[in-house]
């Protein structure tokens, strides 16, 4: 920071009050857009950098966003989590480069809610991004009771009471299942998330709607997070006399486990068994068949989350907004026609 450039000297240079300068830099909605731009241009010209400790004392705001990751729903080794965090960090840098994303993990046997309470009580962050939402989510209930700004990545049973960004899982998984039915598959298994997650209910609804419309019996198992939970059940099913000919997976993490089980049994994905995943996560091995998947832009989702979060902070009143993204089917070579020699 240029020597001597602070809020007071910046205000003197502009001929306006320190309060106005402070609120303009913080994007408060009671300051005009023209004044905000004037202040920011002058701040950049003079090399001003905010003193976050002093600003927090004056405004009570930390310019930090919290993201708390519970071990029950994966960790940094989970490709979905790592990709989401990278996208959220980039979106925050693009939209509000003076803000920080504070990430912490909670061991599986510890209380996630206690960590939220500690963050709120200490004033460490101004707002939260809540991921992998439950149907009845105690984190959402707590943050609503405390009047803390937050946006959920995913919906809850109380979705009309809070801001959220989500993907249209019900439609996407119906379309994925229908695409397999159209290829002649009849024994289609669905590998779903843990049943307490709201998105698991939506994914299941889409799968069941497609199966019921075709007059087919469904078969579903709930998997914990990680590849190991899906691998053994899938391998056992593939050894059955009337084995599944296709799998729809709530995550590409599960789909890669199915792919591995097929290869270990000498089955060719896309020829002997079809596999449909979700989230278009990077392949574990580039030499293996490319995975058919439901794709959504992590960047677009993350920018929507950050923008909703900052809109709350800048608004003088509580405004509940939602954003729903559609999945796009990417059909690659892990899906194909049902084998002609399969007994029905």
Write structural notes for this entry:
Keywords: DNA-binding, Transcription, Transcription regulation. Residues 5-59 form the HTH lacI-type domain. By secondary structure, this protein is of the alpha/beta class. It folds into three domains: 7-59, 434 Repressor (Amino-terminal Domain) (Orthogonal Bundle), CATH 1.10.260.40; 64-167 and 297-327, 3-Layer(aba) Sandwich (Rossmann fold), CATH 3.40.50.2300; 169-296, 3-Layer(aba) Sandwich (Rossmann fold). Helix content is 42%, strand content 17%. The chain has twelve helices and twelve strands. Helix 2 (18-25) packs across helix 3 (33-46), helix 8 runs parallel beside helix 9 (198-213) and helix 10 (228-238) packs across helix 11. The model is unreliable at 52-60 (pLDDT under 50).
């Amino acid at each position: 920071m240029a020597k001597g450039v602070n809020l007071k000297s910046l205000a003197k240079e502009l001929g306006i009050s320190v309060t106005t300068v402070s609120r303009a830099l913080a994007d408060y909605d009671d300051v005009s857009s023209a004044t905000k731009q004037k202040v920011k241009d002058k701040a950049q010209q003079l090399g001003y950098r905010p003193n976050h400790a002093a600003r927090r004392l004056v405004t009570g705001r930390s310019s930090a966003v919290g993201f708390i990751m519970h071990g029950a729903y994966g960790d940094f080794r989970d490709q979905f989590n790592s990709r989401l965090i990278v996208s959220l960090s980039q979106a925050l840098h693009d939209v509000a480069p003076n803000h920080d994303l504070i990430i912490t993990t909670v061991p599986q046997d510890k209380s996630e809610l206690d960590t939220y309470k500690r963050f709120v009580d200490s004033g460490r962050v101004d707002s939260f991004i809540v991921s992998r939402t439950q149907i009845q989510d105690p984190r959402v209930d707590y943050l609503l009771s405390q009047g803390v700004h937050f946006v959920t990545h995913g919906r809850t049973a109380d979705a009309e009471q809070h801001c959220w960004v989500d993907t249209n899982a019900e439609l996407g998984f119906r379309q994925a299942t229908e695409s397999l039915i159209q290829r002649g598959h009849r024994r289609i298994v669905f590998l779903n998330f843990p049943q307490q997650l709201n998105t698991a209910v939506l994914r299941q609804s889409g799968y069941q709607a497609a199966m019921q419309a075709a007059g087919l019996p469904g078969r579903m198992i709930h998997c914990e997070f990680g590849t190991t939970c899906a691998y053994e059940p899938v391998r056992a099913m593939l050894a059955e006399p009337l084995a599944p000919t296709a799998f729809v997976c709530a995550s590409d993490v599960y789909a890669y486990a199915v792919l591995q089980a097929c290869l270990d049994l000498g089955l060719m994905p896309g020829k002997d068994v079809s596999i449909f995943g979700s989230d278009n996560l990077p392949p574990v091995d580039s030499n293996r068949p490319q995975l058919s998947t439901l794709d959504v832009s992590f960047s677009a989702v993350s920018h929507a989350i950050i923008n909703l979060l900052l809109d709350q902070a800048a608004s003088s009143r509580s405004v509940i907004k939602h954003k729903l993204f559609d999945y796009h089917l990417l059909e690659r070579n892990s899906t194909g026609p049902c084998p002609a020699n399969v007994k029905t």
